[in-house]
């Protein structure tokens, strides 16, 4: 992988972000009601609306609004939230931090559990262990998050009262309480991920174990264990990396329901609140952050591919 | 049968009133314990800290902890002194004089005087501030300071309710210096005279306040600290209370109320309110400009069924007037009954012998709007109404239908006074004249009542106004909601307020069995 290739990819990410910002901006223009209407709600009088629109710069032409915004971003200024009047960037990055915390713990738990589960199921294909893992992962994949989350709360918080039901405490404020509050959301999200990934690992591994080169390796006299870990797993994990990369995006932007239930104000929820309030600078910043994480995660996945499989060349 | 419902309801509300009050004698016997941290949960973010522009209940709750008004609202909807110690009015009700307490200070240590009150009301009345208080504090023409502790309000018309309307959620006093320097300062900081001072502010997660040692009342607040925590999911919010993570839920839906009732150590709270969902008619457009069409539709509504369906049993019937028994000037009228034959006859008389088609619009927030619309569609069918229900996102509704449409579902919180709700919605010059009923006889009654001090005379005027709405049906008001909440049993001195937007947490204390927190 050449430095030129990496540079090219980074430039491409920048281009993607520009296009995303344009599309998001265009879509917000089509939505009914603007930030002034949403903010004043049922207290809107024509003169109050007019005054607020002037203050927010909503009377400028659409292109001018976009260029203003773009110029600000290029200077590192994401603008002020139309809803709270506060700088957008710190609020969004704080939310991103909380989402990353959830994502990090969930991915670690997933990797620790999902890959071994997938391997065991593949090696013992058709036996009770395999059926058990398959059944549980079917359940995990098909249950919507709000059901899993509610069940987890019901059992671990309401009945057993082991853990706090909901709420978020920053680790910097009280590490122990913070971790206790993180357990349930992490559990909810990783249950889904584990179901997802263990199924993937199993089916890939089953395919690989039936291929000629594995038979050749066995005939060469290598032990089952050596074949599994040195030869089969390496190839079987490749598609899993793509799945994990996509899951990172999902973990940051797609777990809004989990964030709502556990009152964990992450980036997904922040974005929904911004959309409901037609808070343009926050919507743009949130969309850009999410697009960046997807792009970067995919980029990293590509690099990991090349590293795991030396036959893959990028140029 | 409807009369039984009515009596049931009155008995129930008496029982609840009693329940609410039962805290008070105990309260009088042993003085409230000082100290402790109360954790109260709310279901929405607190985006606005500036009390002049707060818009939702969680924001009102926080503003009330940090700021004070001239007056504040009692649970019986009367005004009690806050920063103002006492007040007098001229005989013609156009000039009101308020005497401030002596030695008031803001959280930053500066003195709070009549000049700050004047500056605050000037800011409220300025359209550029976009304060909801502007339309709600009364017909104020001029505010002036007579001396450091006397404020004189000159009104544009006689108005008997001023002490109550000045208790409006957004009419909180802020320093004149802050107004001069730009109200933006109050987006992150709180410079009030309230019982608590701001410690930390995270809009989406938690707001912490601590006792203001310089509060004008030496006894209150009883609590050292209040943590307001945001739980956007209502069932998670209830779980937190059941698990003992939180002490108080300010408002909760019927589904969660059931869970709270069953939980041990938790007291489910309920109070009848004047909050309602209605069907607004555009009374200036066909077909609803014909009073007979409106009356016909009103005759199809089974109000007891509406209470069961729309409020899930946690409410009381309405008779198409916006005053529930929780209002001071509520007048009892015979409960309206279903009469399909009469409805058909009225429709035929109005020129629709074959029935009538109409599209009823309901926004998706809150969900009760759609429930009401669907129930009405089914109830009205036998009389020949063919109603199509169209639901839409709230933003679209606000933009395209609200105040413009001629047949849609409204949702309103209880106001502090009869005048406030009538002149918000139903007079010809109403702030949101959604029905365009424009009835001069009604306007006259409301205007006259506004200028009447004598309680009996006023009651008679409002009774006539309610009768007029009962007969002419500018909107169908089938049911009123009860407000629901919950608390741990160690919380003392808390009472659900029928207005919904008032909390009075400075009267709350924690019992000896409360858990110790930070």
> What does the largest sheet of chain B look like?
9 strands, mixed
Any idea what the shape of chain A is? globular
Number of strands of chain B: 19
Query: What is the overall number of helices of chain B?
Result: 15
H/E element order of chain A = HHHHHHHHHHHHH
Name the poorly predicted regions of chain A.
none
Low-confidence stretches of chain B: 1-29
DSSP strand content of chain A: under 5%
Taken together, the total number of domains of chain A comes to 2
- Tally the helices of chain A: 13
Structural class of chain B: alpha+beta
Kindly, what is the distance between the CA atoms of the first and last residues of chain B, rounded to a whole number of angstroms? 54 Å
Structural class of chain A: mainly alpha
Question: Mind explaining what this structure looks like?
Answer:
The complex is a heterodimer of chains A (315) and B (518). With 315 residues, chain A is mainly α. Chain A folds into 2 domains: 72 residues, no CATH class; 221 residues, MetI-like (MetI-like fold, Orthogonal Bundle). Helices cover 77% and strands 0% of the residues of chain A. Chain A has 13 helices and no strands. In chain A, α5 packs across α8, α5 runs parallel beside α13 and α12 packs antiparallel against α13. The termini of chain A are close together. The mean pLDDT of chain A is 84. Chain B is an alpha+beta fold and 518 residues long. Chain B contains 15 helices and 19 strands. In chain B, the strands form 5 sheets. In chain B, strands 1, 8, 9, 10, 11, 12, 13, 16 and 17 form a 9-stranded mixed sheet that branches. Chain B has a 4-stranded antiparallel sheet with strand order 4-5-7-6, covered by helices on one side. In chain B, β14, α11 and β15 form a beta-alpha-beta unit. The longest helix of chain B has 28 residues. The N and C termini of chain B lie far apart (54 Å). The N terminus of chain B is likely disordered. The chains are: A mainly alpha (315), B alpha+beta (518). At the A-B interface, α2, α3, α7 and α12 of A face α6 and α12 of B.
């Amino acid at each position: 992988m050449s430095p030129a290739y990496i540079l090219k990819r980074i430039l491409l990410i920048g281009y993607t972000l520009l296009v995303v910002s344009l599309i998001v901006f265009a879509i917000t223009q089509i939505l009914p009601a603007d930030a002034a209407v949403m903010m004043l709600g049922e207290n809107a009088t024509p003169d109050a609306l007019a005054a607020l629109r002037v203050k927010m710069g909503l009377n400028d032409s659409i292109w001018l609004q976009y260029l203003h915004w773009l110029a600000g971003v290029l200077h590192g200024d994401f603008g002020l939230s139309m809803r709270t009047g506060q700088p957008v960037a710190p609020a969004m990055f704080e939310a991103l931090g909380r989402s990353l915390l959830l994502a990090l713990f969930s991915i670690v738990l997933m990797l620790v559990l999902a890959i071994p589960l997938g391997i065991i199921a593949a090696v013992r294909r058709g036996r009770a262990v395999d059926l058990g893992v398959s059944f549980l992962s079917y359940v995990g994949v098909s249950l919507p998050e709000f059901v899993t989350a509610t069940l987890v709360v019901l059992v671990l918080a309401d009945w057993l009262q082991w853990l706090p039901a909901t709420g978020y405490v920053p680790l910097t404020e009280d590490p122990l309480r913070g971790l206790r509050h993180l357990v349930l959301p992490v559990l909810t999200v990783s249950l889904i991920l584990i179901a997802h990934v263990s199924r993937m690992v199993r089916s890939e591994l089953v395919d690989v174990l039936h291929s000629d080169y594995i038979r050749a390796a066995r005939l060469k006299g290598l032990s089952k264990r050596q074949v599994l870990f040195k030869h089969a797993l390496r190839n079987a994990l490749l598609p899993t990396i793509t799945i994990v990369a996509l899951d990172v995006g999902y973990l940051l932007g797609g777990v809004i329901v989990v964030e709502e239930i556990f009152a964990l104000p992450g980036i997904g929820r922040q974005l929904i609140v911004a959309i409901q309030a037609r808070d343009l600078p926050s919507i743009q910043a949130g969309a850009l952050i999410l697009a960046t994480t997807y792009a970067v995660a995919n980029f990293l996945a590509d690099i990991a591919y090349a590293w795991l499989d030396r036959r893959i060349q990028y140029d | 049968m409807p009369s039984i419902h009515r009596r049931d309801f009155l008995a129930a509300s008496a029982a609840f009133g009693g329940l609410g009050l039962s805290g008070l004698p105990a309260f009088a016997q042993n003085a409230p314990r000082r100290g402790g941290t109360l954790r109260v949960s709310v279901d929405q973010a607190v985006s606005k800290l500036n009390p002049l522009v707060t818009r939702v209940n969680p924001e009102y709750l926080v503003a009330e902890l940090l700021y004070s008004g001239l007056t504040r609202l009692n649970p019986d909807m009367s005004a009690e002194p806050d920063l103002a110690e006492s007040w007098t009015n001229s005989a013609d009700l156009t000039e009101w004089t308020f005497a401030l307490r002596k030695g008031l200070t803001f959280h930053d240590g500066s003195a709070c005087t009549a000049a700050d009150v004047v500056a605050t009301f000037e800011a409220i009345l300025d359209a550029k501030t976009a304060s909801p208080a502007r339309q709600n504090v009364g017909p104020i023409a001029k505010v002036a300071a007579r001396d450091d502790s006397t404020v004189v309000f000159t009104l544009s018309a006689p108005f008997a309710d001023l002490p109550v309307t000045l208790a409006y959620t957004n009419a909180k006093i802020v320093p004149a210096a802050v107004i001069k320097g730009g109200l933006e300062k109050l987006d992150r900081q709180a410079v009030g005279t309230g019982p608590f001072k701001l410690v930390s502010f995270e809009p989406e997660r938690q707001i912490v306040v601590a006792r203001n040692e310089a509060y004008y009342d030496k006894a209150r607040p009883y609590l050292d600290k209040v943590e307001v925590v945001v739980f956007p999911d209502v069932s998670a919010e209830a779980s937190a209370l059941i698990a003992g993570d939180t002490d108080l839920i300010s408002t909760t839906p019927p589904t969660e109320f059931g869970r709270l009732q069953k939980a041990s150590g938790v007291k489910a709270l309920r109070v009848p309110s004047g909050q309602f969902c209605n069907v607004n008619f555009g009374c200036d457009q066909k077909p609803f400009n014909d009073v007979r069409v409106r009356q016909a539709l009103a005759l199809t509504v089974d109000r007891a069924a509406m209470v069961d369906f729309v409020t899930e049993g946690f409410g009381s019937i309405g008779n198409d007037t916006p005053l529930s028994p929780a209002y001071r000037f509520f007048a009892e009228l015979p409960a309206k009954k279903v009469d399909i034959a009469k409805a058909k006859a009225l429709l035929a008389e109005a020129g629709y012998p074959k029935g009538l088609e109409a599209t009823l619009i309901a926004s998706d927030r809150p969900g009760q709007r759609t429930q009401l619309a669907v129930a009405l569609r089914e109830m009205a069918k036998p009389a020949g109404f063919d109603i199509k229900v169209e639901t839409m996102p709230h933003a679209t509704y606000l933009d395209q239908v609200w105040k413009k449409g001629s047949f849609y579902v409204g949702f309103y919180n209880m106001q502090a006074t009869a005048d406030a709700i009538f002149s918000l919605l139903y007079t010809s010059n109403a702030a949101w004249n959604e029905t365009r009923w424009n009835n001069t006889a009604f306007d006259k009654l409301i205007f006259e009542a506004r200028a009447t001090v004598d309680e009996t005379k006023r009651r008679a005027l409002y009774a006539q106004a309610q009768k007029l709405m009962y007969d002419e049906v500018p909107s169908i008001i089938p049911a009123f909601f009860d407000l629901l909440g919950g608390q741990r049993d160690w919380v003392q001195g808390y009472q659900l307020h029928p207005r919904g937007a008032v909390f009075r947490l400075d009267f709350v204390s924690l019992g000896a069995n409360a858990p110790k927190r930070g």
